[in-house]
Amino acid sequence: MIEEKLDELGIKLPNPPIPAGSYVPAIRTGNLLFISGQIPMEDGKVIFTGKVSDENLETAQKSARMCAINILTQIKRELGDLNKVSKIVRLSGFVNSVPEFSQQPKVINPASDLFFEIFGEKGKHSRIAVGVSCLPLNSMTEIDAVVEFLE
């Protein structure tokens, strides 16, 4: 069912990105899955880099959407099946912003919207969206997630 939705949206999940540091991409505890921060990486390369400002808001939104797709990839890697997701609990969005930029929620919205579109009610989540002075590998965005799942 979820895979069909991804096909309808034209989304093909990439290979899961490899961690850029000393951590694991996901940890399970009870029926919660904590996904480490995902950056806009594809085929081992960061696609969207640099500081976010009013001038490149649309590009930053594409970056956030790519982070969400990488979260989906990590969920599938860990659970084997996206249909096991019972709730997207929380997203934490980080935006590599110039100091005067204050539209971080607009940047992260496409990631949230994608989860709503794919999972429906199960995709509604709590969220933060904050500006930061720097992100790993100079990526524009980084998003982590907490996901509830059924065995």
TrEMBL record:
Gene3D superfamilies: RutC-like. Pfam families: YjgF_endoribonc. InterPro entries: Endoribo_LPSP/chorism_mut-like, RutC-like_sf. It comes from the Archaea. Signal peptide: none annotated. Residues 5-143 form the Endoribonuclease L-PSP/chorismate mutase-like domain. This is Endoribonuclease L-PSP/chorismate mutase-like domain-containing protein. The lineage of its organism: Archaea, Nitrososphaerota, Nitrososphaeria, Nitrosopumilales, Nitrosopumilaceae.
